[in-house]
Design brief:
mainly alpha
Length: 112
């Protein structure tokens, strides 16, 4: 007897994967220090990547920036298709906004 092919993962389930992983840190108050540390480290690394890509025109930083943009688009794309951003997409876009603001502040203050 022939087995029916497995159904691909449904679109809403794929879109919720990012939310499911990131919201574990938001829901559990014991993990909030971990979340704050992860966001601070990610913001610092993304800010450094933006600065090196923008100001120094370092090809490795440009490649890293391209990879990070591509990863963000892939992670946020299911939410964009539904035309509704989930919490995970909001966290990622907020991370990009905070990093861009930090990079602009560093440039404005003459730090790079």
């Amino acid at each position: 007897m022939k087995q029916p092919p497995e159904a691909p993962e449904s679109e809403p389930e794929a879109g919720r994967a990012l939310d499911r992983h990131l919201l574990e840190y938001v829901r559990d108050p014991g993990l909030w220090p971990v979340l704050v540390t992860l966001l601070a480290v990610a913001t610092t690394l993304l800010t450094a990547t933006l600065l090196f890509a923008w100001r120094a025109r370092n090809p490795f930083s440009l490649a890293a920036l391209f990879a990070l943009v591509l990863a963000t688009v892939v992670a946020v794309e299911p939410d964009l298709r539904r035309r509704r951003l989930g919490a995970g997409a909001g966290i990622l876009l907020g991370l990009w906004a905070a990093s861009a603001a930090a990079a602009a502040l560093v440039i404005r203050l003459g730090g790079f």
